[in-house]
Amino acid sequence: MSVVLVDAGGTNIGSVRYALQRLGVDASLTADASQIRSADKVILPGVGAASPGMARLRELQLVDVIRSLTQPVLGVCLGMQLLCTHSEESDTDCLGVIPADVSRFREAPGFCVPHMGWNRLSSAAKHPLLKNLEEGDWAYFVHSYAVPIGNYTLASTDYGSGFSSIIASGNFHGMQFHPERSASVGAKLLKNFLEL
Q: With contact defined as beta carbons under 8 Å apart, do 154 and 123 qualify?
Protein backbone atom coordinates (compact mmCIF):
# COMPACT_ATOMS: atom_id res chain seq x y z
CA MET A 1 0.00 0.00 0.00
CA SER A 2 1.39 3.42 -0.95
CA VAL A 3 0.62 6.32 1.37
CA VAL A 4 1.71 9.89 0.69
CA LEU A 5 1.83 12.96 2.89
CA VAL A 6 1.19 16.13 0.91
CA ASP A 7 4.12 18.48 1.50
CA ALA A 8 2.02 21.55 2.16
CA GLY A 9 4.36 22.97 4.78
CA GLY A 10 2.59 21.72 7.92
CA THR A 11 4.79 21.54 10.99
CA ASN A 12 3.19 18.26 12.10
CA ILE A 13 4.44 16.30 9.07
CA GLY A 14 7.26 14.60 10.98
CA SER A 15 5.06 13.43 13.84
CA VAL A 16 2.38 12.13 11.43
CA ARG A 17 5.09 10.20 9.57
CA TYR A 18 6.38 8.63 12.79
CA ALA A 19 2.83 7.67 13.82
CA LEU A 20 2.37 5.90 10.47
CA GLN A 21 5.75 4.17 10.83
CA ARG A 22 4.60 2.79 14.18
CA LEU A 23 1.72 1.21 12.21
CA GLY A 24 4.17 -0.32 9.74
CA VAL A 25 3.63 2.21 6.94
CA ASP A 26 6.45 4.28 5.49
CA ALA A 27 4.64 7.27 3.97
CA SER A 28 6.55 9.43 1.51
CA LEU A 29 6.46 13.21 1.73
CA THR A 30 5.76 14.73 -1.68
CA ALA A 31 4.41 17.68 -3.62
CA ASP A 32 4.57 15.72 -6.90
CA ALA A 33 1.12 15.61 -8.52
CA SER A 34 1.62 12.26 -10.25
CA GLN A 35 2.81 10.60 -7.03
CA ILE A 36 -0.18 12.01 -5.14
CA ARG A 37 -2.62 10.83 -7.84
CA SER A 38 -1.18 7.31 -7.90
CA ALA A 39 -1.06 6.75 -4.11
CA ASP A 40 -3.49 4.36 -2.42
CA LYS A 41 -4.04 6.81 0.44
CA VAL A 42 -3.35 10.56 0.69
CA ILE A 43 -2.90 12.52 3.93
CA LEU A 44 -2.99 16.32 4.05
CA PRO A 45 -1.38 17.34 7.37
CA GLY A 46 -1.31 20.90 8.55
CA VAL A 47 -0.58 23.26 11.40
CA GLY A 48 -0.89 27.00 10.98
CA ALA A 49 -3.32 29.29 9.22
CA ALA A 50 -5.78 28.72 6.36
CA SER A 51 -4.58 31.51 4.06
CA PRO A 52 -0.89 30.49 3.91
CA GLY A 53 -1.95 26.83 3.73
CA MET A 54 -4.07 27.46 0.63
CA ALA A 55 -1.40 29.76 -0.83
CA ARG A 56 1.10 26.90 -0.52
CA LEU A 57 -1.25 24.46 -2.29
CA ARG A 58 -1.81 27.00 -5.09
CA GLU A 59 1.93 27.63 -5.39
CA LEU A 60 2.50 23.87 -5.75
CA GLN A 61 -0.39 23.65 -8.26
CA LEU A 62 -2.07 21.03 -6.09
CA VAL A 63 -5.52 22.56 -5.59
CA ASP A 64 -7.16 20.84 -8.58
CA VAL A 65 -5.07 17.71 -8.00
CA ILE A 66 -6.47 17.25 -4.49
CA ARG A 67 -10.01 18.12 -5.58
CA SER A 68 -9.87 15.40 -8.26
CA LEU A 69 -8.64 12.55 -6.04
CA THR A 70 -10.82 9.45 -5.83
CA GLN A 71 -8.83 7.39 -3.30
CA PRO A 72 -9.27 7.88 0.47
CA VAL A 73 -7.94 11.29 1.59
CA LEU A 74 -7.43 12.40 5.21
CA GLY A 75 -6.99 16.00 6.32
CA VAL A 76 -5.46 16.46 9.78
CA CYS A 77 -6.01 19.63 11.89
CA LEU A 78 -5.57 22.53 9.45
CA GLY A 79 -5.58 19.91 6.68
CA MET A 80 -9.17 19.02 7.64
CA GLN A 81 -10.21 22.68 7.57
CA LEU A 82 -8.62 23.14 4.13
CA LEU A 83 -10.89 20.38 2.78
CA CYS A 84 -13.89 22.58 3.59
CA THR A 85 -15.50 25.28 1.46
CA HIS A 86 -14.42 28.43 3.25
CA SER A 87 -12.60 29.54 6.41
CA GLU A 88 -13.43 32.62 8.41
CA GLU A 89 -9.68 32.82 9.07
CA SER A 90 -8.50 35.64 6.76
CA ASP A 91 -11.70 35.09 4.70
CA THR A 92 -10.09 32.16 2.85
CA ASP A 93 -11.64 30.06 0.11
CA CYS A 94 -10.55 26.46 0.65
CA LEU A 95 -10.65 23.23 -1.39
CA GLY A 96 -14.44 22.85 -1.18
CA VAL A 97 -14.58 19.04 -1.19
CA ILE A 98 -16.49 18.93 2.12
CA PRO A 99 -19.53 21.27 2.19
CA ALA A 100 -18.76 23.13 5.41
CA ASP A 101 -17.58 26.56 6.49
CA VAL A 102 -14.93 26.96 9.18
CA SER A 103 -15.44 29.62 11.86
CA ARG A 104 -13.51 30.88 14.87
CA PHE A 105 -14.47 29.76 18.34
CA ARG A 106 -16.36 32.45 20.19
CA GLU A 107 -14.62 33.28 23.45
CA ALA A 108 -16.73 32.49 26.49
CA PRO A 109 -16.08 32.31 30.23
CA GLY A 110 -14.10 29.18 30.98
CA PHE A 111 -13.34 28.44 27.31
CA CYS A 112 -10.06 29.91 26.12
CA VAL A 113 -9.16 30.23 22.44
CA PRO A 114 -7.27 28.35 21.13
CA HIS A 115 -8.89 25.13 22.29
CA MET A 116 -5.81 23.26 23.45
CA GLY A 117 -5.51 19.90 25.17
CA TRP A 118 -7.38 16.65 25.57
CA ASN A 119 -11.11 16.41 24.89
CA ARG A 120 -13.66 13.69 24.28
CA LEU A 121 -15.00 12.32 20.98
CA SER A 122 -18.68 11.50 20.62
CA SER A 123 -19.74 9.38 17.63
CA ALA A 124 -22.45 10.91 15.46
CA ALA A 125 -22.62 8.30 12.67
CA LYS A 126 -21.61 4.76 11.78
CA HIS A 127 -18.53 4.72 9.54
CA PRO A 128 -15.52 2.41 9.04
CA LEU A 129 -13.25 5.27 10.13
CA LEU A 130 -14.77 4.99 13.63
CA LYS A 131 -14.28 1.22 14.00
CA ASN A 132 -13.55 0.31 17.65
CA LEU A 133 -13.86 3.94 18.76
CA GLU A 134 -15.41 4.04 22.21
CA GLU A 135 -17.88 6.75 23.20
CA GLY A 136 -15.95 9.40 25.13
CA ASP A 137 -12.48 8.42 23.88
CA TRP A 138 -9.95 11.22 24.33
CA ALA A 139 -8.04 13.05 21.58
CA TYR A 140 -5.54 15.91 21.60
CA PHE A 141 -6.62 19.25 20.06
CA VAL A 142 -4.90 22.55 19.25
CA HIS A 143 -7.08 24.91 17.19
CA SER A 144 -8.85 28.27 17.17
CA TYR A 145 -11.20 27.53 14.25
CA ALA A 146 -13.75 24.75 13.98
CA VAL A 147 -16.19 23.07 11.61
CA PRO A 148 -19.84 23.14 12.74
CA ILE A 149 -21.86 19.95 13.08
CA GLY A 150 -23.56 18.89 9.84
CA ASN A 151 -24.41 15.93 7.60
CA TYR A 152 -20.66 15.34 7.13
CA THR A 153 -20.02 14.92 10.91
CA LEU A 154 -18.85 11.46 12.00
CA ALA A 155 -17.86 12.52 15.53
CA SER A 156 -18.28 15.68 17.52
CA THR A 157 -16.64 17.31 20.52
CA ASP A 158 -17.98 19.85 22.98
CA TYR A 159 -16.03 23.00 23.81
CA GLY A 160 -18.61 25.47 25.02
CA SER A 161 -20.71 24.24 22.11
CA GLY A 162 -20.46 21.26 19.81
CA PHE A 163 -18.20 21.13 16.76
CA SER A 164 -17.11 18.45 14.28
CA SER A 165 -14.04 16.53 15.34
CA ILE A 166 -14.19 13.89 12.57
CA ILE A 167 -15.83 14.55 9.21
CA ALA A 168 -16.31 12.75 5.89
CA SER A 169 -17.86 13.37 2.50
CA GLY A 170 -17.32 10.74 -0.16
CA ASN A 171 -13.65 9.74 -0.18
CA PHE A 172 -12.57 12.84 1.80
CA HIS A 173 -12.13 12.56 5.57
CA GLY A 174 -10.89 14.91 8.28
CA MET A 175 -9.75 14.83 11.91
CA GLN A 176 -9.63 18.17 13.71
CA PHE A 177 -7.48 16.79 16.52
CA HIS A 178 -3.97 15.41 16.14
CA PRO A 179 -4.22 11.60 15.83
CA GLU A 180 -0.42 11.43 15.84
CA ARG A 181 -0.46 12.89 19.38
CA SER A 182 -3.59 11.13 20.62
CA ALA A 183 -1.96 7.94 21.93
CA SER A 184 -3.78 4.65 21.31
CA VAL A 185 -6.99 6.35 20.14
CA GLY A 186 -5.13 8.26 17.45
CA ALA A 187 -3.26 5.12 16.36
CA LYS A 188 -6.56 3.24 16.13
CA LEU A 189 -8.12 5.96 13.95
CA LEU A 190 -5.09 6.19 11.65
CA LYS A 191 -5.17 2.40 11.28
CA ASN A 192 -8.87 2.61 10.39
CA PHE A 193 -8.06 5.18 7.70
CA LEU A 194 -5.34 2.96 6.25
CA GLU A 195 -7.87 0.12 6.08
CA LEU A 196 -10.52 2.12 4.17
A: yes
